[in-house]
Amino acid sequence: MAANGTIFTNAYAACPVCSPSRAGIMTGKTPALLNLTDYLPGNKSYGPHKDQTLTSHALKNYLDLNEYTIAESFRDAGYKTMMAGKWHLAEEEKYYPQFQGFDINI
């Protein structure tokens, strides 16, 4: 498969945990700029969790609707978009993928 495709030999993750990395992919911004620097729910407001020894600074528990996402960019270019699987960028429905530029959310 690699002979007919592209081989990526270097990679970068915006953060070592899922939610901030996902927000970075969606917006092209660093987690610090989004004030979303911990996994959700990883914020102290949800915990503390039994294994959590450090506390997080105050951060957003969602990807802000004002952020322009890659899905909105594709939509604006005339594409149809779909999100299937783990969103993990909010717990409240008003921040779900269908409100962040995705036509379909499964």
In words, what does this structure look like?
The chain is mostly helical and 106 residues long. The protein has one domain. The protein has a two-stranded parallel sheet. The protein is globular. The two termini are 29 Å apart. The model has no long low-confidence stretch (mean pLDDT 86).
Mean pLDDT: 86
Order of SSEs, N→C? Answer: HHHEE
Query: Which bin fits the share of residues in helices?
Result: 10-25%
Strand content: under 5%
How many separate domains make up the residues? Answer: 1
Number of strands: 2
Question: Can you list the strand order of the major beta sheet?
Answer: 1-2
Number of helices: 3
Distance between the termini: 29 Å
Structural class: mainly alpha
Taking all Cα atoms into account, the compactness measure Rg is 16 Å
Low-confidence stretches: none
Major sheet size, sense and barrel closure:
2 strands, parallel
Gross geometry? globular
